[in-house]
Amino acid sequence: MELINEFASLDNKVSLCSDIWSDHWQSCSYMGITCHWIDNAWNIQKRLLAYRCFNDPHTAQNIYHLMFIILEEYGLTSNFFSNSFDNASANTCSINELIRLCQPSIGGKFFHIRCTCHSFNLCVQDDLKSLELYIKPIRYAIHYL
């Protein structure tokens, strides 16, 4: 309740970082959302807003729906500046729905910030595939040491 009151009195916008991941042992998926903002005393703040079970298919509509519920719970639908997400197409489509509904400042130009770590990981994974011809014999040799 204290966090909701702080958001209600906040003069600045907030930015979110969201991710969805799967627990392969329990066959569950989760959505985590963290919130970042500068408070009225000009201190950088960050809080975990939600960590929710997300067993629905990872469609744009389902992602958007859960995010919007969380934004409404904290009163952030009109105070939301940007969201950092990975590059999955469902995430991009869900952001487009949020832009339509939340009507962010500057037309949502910076509303979807693609996660740099995720993009970097995709590059590294792609490079590792091209090196597989060299890595496989090394792994095989190490196995017998």
Automatic annotation (TrEMBL):
GO cellular component: nucleus
InterPro entries: RNaseH-like_sf (IPR012337), ZnF_BED_domain_contain (IPR052035)
Positions of transmembrane segments: none
Localization terms from the record: Nucleus
UniProt keywords, alphabetically: Metal-binding, Nucleus, Zinc, Zinc-finger
GO molecular function: zinc ion binding
Matches recorded under SUPFAM superfamilies: Ribonuclease H-like
Chief location category: nucleus
Protein's name according to its UniProt entry: DUF659 domain-containing protein
